[in-house]
Design brief:
The complex is a heterodimer of chains A (about 230) and B (about 80). Chain A is of the alpha/beta class and about 230 residues long. Chain A has five helices and eleven strands; from the N terminus they run βαββαβαββββαβββα. Chain A has helices spanning about 15-25, 70-80, 90-95, 155-160, 210-225; strands at about 5-10, 30-35, 45-50, 85-90, 105, 115-120, 140-145, 150, 165-170, 180-185, 190-195. The longest helix of chain A is centred in the C-terminal third of the chain and has 15 residues, at about 210-225. Chain B contains two helices and three strands; from the N terminus they run βαβαβ. Chain B has a three-stranded antiparallel sheet with strand order 2-1-3, covered by helices on one side. The longest helix of chain B is centred in the C-terminal third of the chain and has 16 residues, at about 50-65. Chain B is elongated. Classes of the chains: A alpha/beta (about 230), B alpha+beta (about 80).
Chain lengths: ~230, ~80
């Protein structure tokens, strides 16, 4: 069993928490637990997932209220110390709101909630999140969001490009994201935020396992660092 | 007691797709003199403060910390004394 200990943060309104739990626990056989946001601590977990959904009903702005939830202080401390944190969809929005990743997610340019499988291009395969992919490989991962239009100022974009922080781009931009950005990592390369849902493309029974390699490579990289 | 009337909108340099859609609709109704439409949020706070300055300081802090996202939104507010 990989020695990764996955903790999935559950906010009121999270709704992809069970999907990602199922992949880690039942498909990848990783020690996995839910972390209720009010518990305020991540305990002994060494991989933290902020799942998709509509935390706090997306009130005010997506992720704006979750960032002050009691567990987020611990998540931020863990992330700043180099701990692995992955934000998927709403989790990406929370990470941006919390200032753990640059930029933010705005309303989709076409004003529609887009729910479909899209093609992503792997722009950097040297990150712990993407080691299982080939550079420029095209993978199919589902998206389901109304506010996934990534934006940051020019200076931040230059930094994202210069530091190879852009991991995934859309081949056919579904939401108006700047530079077709679908997923980014922080400068220290331990925090990933992405709008597409790798956990929805991880079970052979569902006909697409392109997302599984991402979650697998993370569990394995923690195993290596522990050994 | 003071009332803080806060307006938050997407920064001028960023495309506001919702505003654009509404603008098209207004134009189709014949409002040809309307040149730009931007949609934002209005938030009203009731603040128990000793002075207008203090109410301003509290409003600014609330906007910076939570109400507006500094990456893509601008805000402005007006403080009125509650009568």
């Amino acid at each position: 069993m990989p020695s990764g200990k996955v903790g999935i943060v559950v906010f009121p309104g999270s709704n992809c928490d069970h999907d990602v739990y199922n992949v880690f626990k039942n498909i990848l056989a990783v020690d996995t637990e839910f972390l209720w946001h009010k518990d305020g601590s991540i305990g002994d977990r060494n991989i933290i997932i902020l799942p998709g959904g509509f935390s706090y009903g997306d009130y005010l702005r997506c992720g704006a209220i979750s960032k002050f939830s009691s567990i987020m202080k611990d998540v931020a401390d863990f992330a700043r110390k180099g701990g692995i944190v992955i934000g998927i969809c709403n989790g990406f929005q929370v990470l941006c709101e919390a200032g753990l990743l640059p930029g933010g997610l705005m309303r989709n340019e076409n004003l529609k909630f887009v729910c479909k499988t899209v093609t992503l291009k792997v722009e950097n395969n040297k990150s712990i999140f993407t080691t299982e992919y080939k550079i420029k490989e095209e993978i199919n991962i589902p998206i389901a969001h109304g506010e996934g239009n990534y934006y940051c100022d020019e200076e931040s974009l230059t930094r994202l490009i210069g530091n190879n922080q852009i991991l995934f781009t859309y081949t056919d931009n579904p939401n108006g994201s700047l530079s077709n950005i679908a997923g980014i990592q922080n400068v220290k390369r331990n925090i990933l935020g992405m709008m597409p849902h790798p956990e929805r493309a991880s079970d052979e029974m569902l006909g697409n396992t392109d997302g599984r390699r991402l979650l697998e490579s993370v569990a394995e990289s923690v195993a290596e660092s522990v050994l | 007691m003071f009332i803080s009337k806060i307006n938050i909108s997407i920064r001028k340099t960023i495309l506001d797709p919702q505003g654009k859609a509404v603008e098209h609709s207004l134009k189709s109704l014949g409002f040809n003199s309307i040149e730009d439409t931007r949609i934002g949020k209005y938030i009203e706070l009731k603040i128990n403060a000793d002075s207008k300055e203090e109410a301003e300081r509290i409003s600014k802090e609330a906007c910076d910390k939570l109400l507006a996202n500094p990456v893509m939104e601008d805000y402005s507010f007006e403080i009125l004394k509650e009568t």
